[in-house]
Design brief:
about 40% helix; four-stranded mixed sheet; Aspartate Aminotransferase, domain 1; binds pyridoxal-5'-phosphate; 16 helices; 2 domains
């Protein structure tokens, strides 16, 4: 199929919910993807923050192949060997040891919100200005950007937004709203432009939630699975949330999400509180197993801060500010990112924009090395020069 035909058929038959790059990708290997014309791109967009091991990592591909010949699927009405192994492995690697498997980030958030509401008996959820938590109705209610929420406000549960990093605002809200079930926070607000907060803020929030009997939920759909240097970014703050949501990197591209719970919360969960036909399916579990085993065996999490430092060094003369952690990187630049991204694509590099017109997002895989970073830096310098001249 040629590029023109691919673009035409998607644009004709798919409902227009996405603003797409005009690129049809048909193959991937490691840090690179190829389009239908055979052009190669260095993928520092990571397939939308999804590919911690790069594209088509052989261990994940082999695991899926082998599993597909044994058992493609059986639901949670039965036990299964690969699901049991992944549950143990995830519990070994993550700070919370009780798991619900689903298929996407938004479902992982929905699960956390349901459990928080049932456990506390309260319905109010607080999230942060700038937050993105997904598009199904529960998680959409906690997503800040009005352009996503506005058409649906009539059917969304009541939501409250606080400024991220402001402990005084959090204290004032939580002490006056004793009917708050949970604070939901994306520790690095990726889509907002890699907006974060100091470690002390997260420690303060933990204390505040404890003193007001409010649950603390970390949305680690982007930060999780080692992308920031530890399995959960909460480990870097020295705190343990009550729940953590994971998706994106977890299955190296196979759809899978997970909500991790404390044992205390898990003990309160009853049959029927949540469910998913496909959650914990065998193909997804085989991809998660190979992904987690590789991250652990190859010490890939240790690479994340090094990649951040190397990219910081490489873009030093141009970047106005570096944001984020590990392989979740924001670069503030003078020109509009919307003008740089096409220039980068022309030079064979994929990167992302954000809600901040001057913050470019990079979500490289944990396997990116000096050669890839040098290749990115050269294209980045040329693209900026192009746009400024
Ligand atoms: C922080 C965060 N939470 C939740 C989601 C929703 O995940 P999904 O698109 O898999 O439903 C996203 C998606 O981009 C996200 O970035």
């Amino acid at each position: 199929m040629n590029t023109q035909a691919i673009l035409r058929d998607e644009d004709t038959f798919l409902i227009p919910t996405y603003k797409k790059m005009p690129v049809a990708l048909v193959r991937g290997e490691g840090c690179y993807v190829w389009d239908s014309d055979g052009k190669r791109y260095l993928d520092f967009y990571g397939g939308h923050c999804v590919t911690p091991l790069g594209h088509c990592p052989s261990k994940v591909v082999d695991a899926i192949k082998q599993q597909s010949e044994r058992l493609l699927f059986y639901s949670n009405v039965v036990y299964n060997d690969v699901r049991a192994r992944v549950a143990r492995l995830l519990a070994e690697m993550a700070p919370l040891k009780r798991i619900f498997f689903c298929n996407s980030g938004t479902e992982a958030i929905e699960t956390a919100l349901k459990i928080a509401r049932k456990s506390t008996g309260h319905s109010k959820i607080v999230s942060m200005v700038g937050a993105f938590h997904g598009r199904t109705l529960g998680s959409l209610a906690t997503t800040w950007n009005p352009s996503y929420r506005a058409p649906f406000t009539k059917v969304l549960p009541n939501s409250h937004f606080l400024p991220i990093g402001d402990l005084v605002a959090a204290e004032s809200f939580l002490t006056q709203n004793k009917d708050t079930a949970a604070v939901l926070i994306e520790p690095v607000q990726s889509i907002a432009g890699m907006v974060g907060a100091p470690d002390e803020y997260f420690r303060g929030l933990r204390k505040l939630c404890d003193s007001t009997s409010t649950l603390l939920i970390f949305d680690e759909v982007q930060t999780g699975v080692g992308r920031t240097g530890t399995f959960s970014i909460s480990e870097q703050f020295g705190i343990v949330p009550d729940m953590i949501t994971l998706a994106k990197s977890l299955g190296s591209g196979i759809p899978v999400g997970a909500t991790l719970l404390s044992k205390t919360l898990s003990d309160e969960v009853q049959y029927g509180d949540q469910g998913s036909t496909f959650g914990g399916g065998m193909i997804a579990m085989s991809a998660v197993e190979a992904t987690l085993q590789t991250i652990r065996a190859d010490s890939l999490m240790d690479r994340a801060p090094k990649i951040f430092d190397a990219i910081t060094e490489a873009v030093k003369p141009i970047a106005l500010e570096m944001r984020g952690h590990g392989c979740l990187i924001g670069i503030r630049i003078k020109p509009k990112v919307s003008s740089i991204l096409p220039a980068l694509r022309e030079r064979g590099v994929l990167a992302g924009g954000s809600a901040d017109p001057n913050v470019m997002r990079l979500m490289p895989p944990l396997i990116a090395d000096e050669k890839h970073i040098a290749e990115f830096a050269e294209a980045f310098r040329d693209a900026i020069e192009d746009v400024q001249t």
